[in-house]
Amino acid sequence: MKIKYSICTNRLTLTALLLTVTGIFTGIFAQIQNNSVTDVDGNTYKTVVIGSQEWMKENLKTTKFNDKSDIQNITDPREWARATSYAYSWYNNNISNKDIYGALYNWPAVNTGKLCPAGWRVPTDEDWSKLIDFLGGSDLAGGKLKEINNSTWNPPNRGATNESGFSAIPGGYRFGNYWYPGDFYEQGINSYWWSGTEYTESHAWSRTVNNERTKVYRSFFIKNSGFSVRCIKNDR
Questions:
Q1: Closest to 33 in 3D by CA, of 165, 229, 207, 169
Q2: Whether the predicted pLDDT of 144 surpasses 70
Q3: Nearest CA-CA partner of 94 in 84, 102, 106
């Protein structure tokens, strides 16, 4: 019994030492980090393997589909709200938001199937659910997704650990409703990401993470909304 206890103790000590050396729990859910993928615009994104999925660690910022055709950049707020075709914008129509937060896309752009680099796709509602379940469920997964960085997140960025390596940042959204202007809201407060799954003819599923909560919210929004996109690699 004494010999078994000694072996167990030594193993626990070695495990604790390895965790300390490799960064103390940060990235504990990430099996492989810092691979990369490049879109047709020449933007390169770091990626991370979480469970059986490989995700971009950054929001998409392409201005072209993967067949090299252009995506319409709509700046006018009423034109955005009434658009019937695919479009993107930068938050506040300011291209300085590109490198940090990526672009905001309407769902028609998502629905083309050509938004992500070849071999990648916009995650389905099921893809998002699989990620969140792997991270312990919707009540806790938000904290494990959020970047530990108050230069992008407004305080308190509650529960943020980025244990997943996903590095979520709060890109906000662009309002989309025919009767109202397509203004910008909530950068620093919320991350909104489209799924590739339709809810109704006018709405689609999404996921949201908030600076005040550790929860991931599953909601459906009108398709003219402008949300961020995280691409997932086709099945590994």
A1: 165
A2: yes
A3: 102
71-75 LR contacts (CB < 8 Å, sep 24+):
71/105, 71/109, 71/115, 74/182
Q: Which residue in the block uniquely carries the two structure tokens 């980090």? A: 33
Specify the DSSP class assigned to residue 170.
-
pTM: 0.88
**Bridge pairing between strands 53-56 and 72-73:** unpaired
CA nearest 110: which of 25, 24, 28, 231? Answer: 231
Residue 8 has pLDDT above 70, yes or no: no
* Tens digits of residue pLDDT in 177-206: 989 999 999 999 999 999 999 999 999 999
**Dihedral angle computed from the Cα positions of residues 224, 227, 230 and 232, in that order, rounded to the nearest 10 degrees:** -20
Cα separations in angstroms, 163 against 8, 94, 115, 135, 168: 26, 31, 28, 9, 11
